[in-house]
Design brief:
This protein is mainly alpha-helical. 73% of the residues lie in helices and 0% in strands.
Amino acid sequence: MSDLKKYVDKRKKSDRQFALEYESGYEHFKIGALLRQAREESGLTQEELAQQLHTKKTAISRIENHAEDIRLSTLEKIAEVLGKKIYLKIV
């Protein structure tokens, strides 16, 4: 186990607020990372994706790096341009 993993595990056990924020932060990071991966697999730059979505490159960058408040309709538009589908699961 890495030192970082040990630190995070210890901190989660001792700080409930940290644990809650860590999990939600990780989920937001994961959404942005998945979007970036799909864009790159599609062979598009942020600029090219932005043009197809009629937005700015900075908006795509913000989504990929800080996807904490992205709308489902926005995710669907991005997926459509990338030739992908969105699957939503409630567990």
